[in-house]
Write a structure and sequence with these properties.
The chain is of the alpha+beta class. The protein has 2 domains: 123 residues, N-terminal domain of MutM-like DNA repair proteins; 125 residues, Helicase, Ruva Protein, domain 3. The chain is 28% helix and 21% strand. Strand 6 and strand 7 form a beta hairpin. The two termini are 27 Å apart.
């Protein structure tokens, strides 16, 4: 499932490609990906200008000039492609937004969705989310304050979107490896120095992953060399049995909170 770095990468690329442009056509192949009947969705979205694109947690928000918004969550298997009809991937497209002869294809939205929302509806949809870990107001002091309310395993804590928004299964593994902390370790067992290290690792791992373009396998447009660079820079996630880049011991896999979790049992303490 795309996490904060992947959606931030998409946000930046979409700002370059479609911000300020008018939607000239809407094609819906799967009505279940929407929150409205197809005809109503098309009526509300078609001919609207995309004023801007923002990210909140694992969501993308397209701001339309009628004051409404499109809220995208890709969930498991969803991805985006931008290009003309000749460049379109040979995959089933659930939703297509056209910008002249260029099109934004929403692919793999079997679990994901694209909802048309008013501002009050959008606020309700996002009100449960915790703070953004890369915003300037997410300070060490704020992180330490939030930690006081947590009692469970660090892995589970990082996955909690009401605690911190945007971190999922993949980057929680990478953050804990970077911080040299075991995923099963309880938040209440952390010493002050470990808390500081965890905060710093959240910042470092997420920022690096954004610079590498996230982990997505599929390019966003033809010739895209940015998207997906983080996948080859993973240290532990999905690398069971491989040598830990730090100590050389085999990476192990366990299940925590019904999630496959990868870590080094030697250098994570």
């Amino acid at each position: 499932m795309p996490e904060l770095p992947e959606m931030e990468n998409y946000k930046c690329l979409l700002q370059e490609k479609i911000q300020g442009k008018q939607i000239t056509g809407v094609v819906i192949q799967r009505e279940k990906s929407l929150n409205l009947p197809t005809e109503e969705f098309v009526q509300r979205v078609n001919r609207q200008k995309v004023l801007g694109i923002d990210r909140r947690a694992k969501y993308l928000i397209f701001h339309l000039d009628n004051g409404d918004h499109l809220l995208l969550h890709l969930m498991l298997g969803g991805w985006l492609f931008y290009g003309n009809t000749d460049e379109k991937p040979k995959r089933t497209v659930q939703v297509q937004l056209s910008f002249g002869n260029q099109h934004l294809y929403f692919i793999g939205l079997r679990l994901g969705y694209l909802h048309e929302l008013s501002t009050p509806q959008l606020e309700v949809q996002l009100q449960h989310l915790g703070p953004e870990p890369l915003e300037s107001n997410f300070s060490l002091d704020r992180f330490l304050h939030l930690l006081q309310t947590k009692r469970g395993a660090l892995k589970t804590m990082l996955l909690d979107q009401e605690f911190i928004a945007g971190i999922g299964n993949r980057y929680s593994d990478e953050i804990l490896w970077h911080a040299r902390l075991l995923p099963e370790k309880k938040a209440t067992e952390l010493e002050q120095e470990q808390k500081v290290r965890l905060f710093q690792s959240i910042q470092t791992v997420l920022r690096q992953a954004i610079q590498w373009g996230g982990y997505m396998d599929e390019a966003f447009y033809q010739g895209d060399v940015q998207t997906g660079g983080a996948k080859n820079n993973m240290n532990v996630h999905d690398r069971e049995g491989e040598a830990c880049p730090r100590c050389g011991n085999p990476i192990v896999k366990v299940e925590i909170s019904s999630r496959n979790t990868f870590y080094c049992h030697i250098c994570q303490k």
